[in-house]
Specification:
The structure is a single chain. It contains 17 helices and 13 strands. It has 399 residues and is α/β, with parallel strands linked by helices. The protein folds into two domains: 119 residues, P-loop containing nucleotide triphosphate hydrolases (Rossmann fold), CATH 3.40.50.300; 268 residues, no CATH class. An eight-stranded mixed sheet has the order 7-6-8-9-10-11-13-12, with helices on both faces. A five-stranded parallel sheet has the order 2-3-4-1-5, with helices on both faces. Helix 12 packs across helix 13. The longest helix has 21 residues.
Length: 399
Amino acid sequence: MMIKRTLAKKLRKAIRQFPVVTVTGPRQSGKTTLVRDELKDYAYVSLELPDQRSFALEDPRGFLGQFDGPVILDEVQRAPELFSYIQVMVDEREKPGQFILTGSHNFLLLQSISQSLAGRCAVLHLLPFSLAELSSRKPISIETLGKSVPRNIKPPKQSLMEVLFTGLYPRIHDKRLHPTDWLASYYQTYLERDVRNVLNIGDLEAFSRFVRLCAGRNGQLLNLSNLASDCGITHTTARRWISVLEASFIIVLLRPHHNNFGKRLIKSPKLYFLDTGLLCFLLQIRSADELFQHGLRGSIFESLVLSELHKNFIHRGEQSQLYFWRDSSGHEIDIIIDLGSSLIPVETKSGQTIAADFLEGLNYWQALSGQSNGPSALVYGGDRAFKRSGAVVYPWFFL
């Protein structure tokens, strides 16, 4: 069954406005499937194919000249020389929707776009499935979060632990694959192709150790000095490798929110993995049952909630407006959604029952910020939605 992607609407809008549209995202997030399904009348070429890549590198003008109409160029970062020629062509034609470019290497693509196609190109990001996409429903409206109790929300077939353990990469769900086997292959491909070929990281063993150390720190404040020390690398290398993980959509860094309400705030970002299946693989969790007893279950659940909210913004073609808040006294809110005109605090708890102290952080933050009657949300591992102590409590699958 073909799963409809939320980003499709933004893609169709972008091709009516820009001569070039780039769709980037992690390897195997469904970019090729999306663009080919939505743009069936476009020619298609993959630059992963050696003969096509050779043609594009040796004779870029001739390669681009073979297409009469609009074209999808897949894995275009494999032939970066094309960008300058594309720039000339789109300036001559002045028509929207001429080229759709896709690629897995955000760092390479964005560098090429900023040099050659600035102002001519819309950049969209496709991440793995969201829970809403997997359930064939519309994504929630972020603006309504924490305001009213939702009705008639149906739990999915998979349990929370199964979803966390499996993750949301499309191929696992399309082909009903065992997540550990597929993720092992995926991770190896990421290391050998994306990391080694693109960034010339010679010591893949050290980089792999670094990624696993990051997994063990999921949901924690990023401390580059400690990471570098534990991995046996320099602080500068650790900073560069974190940038690599962020640019290739393996992790997301959650920045602290700037409102201090008179309190001294923590300034370091928090580190999260975008896919809980890959996170579980890196933590060497072997089953959903094992995950249930695992000491990091809470932070893995936090990753799921953050990732779903992040996808909600990204798949609508918007900048993610997510932060966390923590003061020097240890008071903390897991996620702050900044909508400009309002702030929505969100707490996460992986347990299936709600204790009274789960809501203390939300109540403290609301009183401090002068938003005692404002929206607030708690996402938990249970299956009911209700209101308690002024906060709307949501089941995990509502996102």
